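User: Here's a protein and a ligand (NDP). What would the complex look like?
Assistant: Let me lay out the input and then the predicted complex.
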Amino acid sequence: MAEQLIIAGERHDAASGETFTVIEPATGAALADVAKAGPADVDLALSAATAAFNDGRGTWARTSATERGRVLHRVAELLREREDLFATTEARGAGHPIGDARWEVGAAAGTFEYYAGAANKHFGSVVPVQDAGLDVVLREPVGPVGLIVPWNFPLLIACWKLAPALACGNPVILKPASLTPLTALLLGDVLVDAGIPSDQVHVLPGPGGIIGDALVSDPRTSKISFTGETTTGSSILKSSADNIARVSLELGGKSAAIVFADANIAKAAADAPMSVFGNAGQDCCARSRILVERSAYDEFLEIFEATTRAIKVGDPLSTETEMGPLISEGQRQTSLDYIEIARGEGARVVSGGDVSDQAGYYLSPAVVADVDNSMRIAREEVFGPVASIIAFDSEEDAIRIANDSDYGLSGSLWTGSAPRAIRVARSIRTGTLAVNTNRSVRYEAPFGGYKRSGLGRELGMQAMDAYTEVKNVFFSEED
Ligand code: NDP
């Protein structure tokens, strides 16, 4: 039987009765059939969400912020209790190594705990106006929110959106990627089991071009939070323009790790491979451009390449595995195409890019050296396990190359000099930067992109601003 979608907290078949098949990336075989939502299901979900929000009952919006926090704590508890189910489903559905998938379930629970605590600590203010009276600024939920999620981190990115949206009192309509809908549906069950009123919870798997667009262009959708490709983000901005919907976009990246010769080269070079090849390179924060000062270039490349060769690529369900398959044959082919393009443009493919005859969408991580920043491999997001190594000659050169990109999502900076770290960190045009580490995203801190990498910020207290409206009320002192 097909996995049913969730409308008003309950499992249903799609109104059309249609289903689609989800493929397991490690085998290329069918994993599950899932109900395929259509515009009629979007209409049902928005009707339920809007009725509860607009008729004053506002079950969830009117629940005290403290109580909302308690319920979100319960969501986190249930996620931890169901770790095996979530981690195994993510490993099989998205190809994540099981160790990573377990970490992601913990991070998903941590995200809910953070916003459980934030619910009653995000509030308005009193403004000292000159008229006689009291001027109050209120923070109110924005209304039904459409949360559109990609396939690379299906569970985690859904939680980055759901937790603050719910903490602020909004009804949620979650649209997972068609390649990876399974953990989103499990998450919908958890929200209802934790006590979020059922009319606030909707999970609609189905084709983005149809139901994503129906959700975005419907005037009842007050806000869209989207993560995915830059071109899709641009089309969402256009579709939501007539309704003046609030929109946050987390889009693509081509992030640079800059390694100066005064850094701990052994550490930087050993750490760098998983900053590109983690999740098989399907990470918007991947440091896919690695800029190395020329005097340290050969030493860095030798360690980087040896560390890359030691990465264990294989079955996501094995605890030994460090890199699983890519999500699809198409995604693997795109990576192979970029390796050939790089070769054709004069870059040196040092190792990797091999396809074995085992089933599944596996590809060994590819190291491409002597890349020039003008090459397509340095300018376009590959979203696969392909690292470009670029040499630079000076601090100014490094900053110029790092900033010479349409994107500005993430990045790293490795140096032994504190003054240089300050100078360079302030010069790089990116939303997130890590110094002497490659880890970028922490749910306590804001995350998002400059330039074509996005609009608005997720995570941190900034997300609480993004899911609320500001209302100003003046109470006159006059009788
Ligand atoms: P897509 O943009 O193709 O899809 C993302 C989501 O949008 C999916 O749920 C998709 O549905 C849906 N969608 C597709 N078309 C529309 C539409 N016209 N209207 C509304 N929704 C639509 O991205 P991918 O899934 O391929 O994800 C990979 C991309 O995501 C990469 O570019 C990556 O950089 C980016 N990304 C950015 C992050 C960030 O925080 N900046 C984090 C993670 C990924 P369906 O699956 O049915 O097509």
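Summary: Residues 225 and 248 are 5 Å apart (CA to CA).
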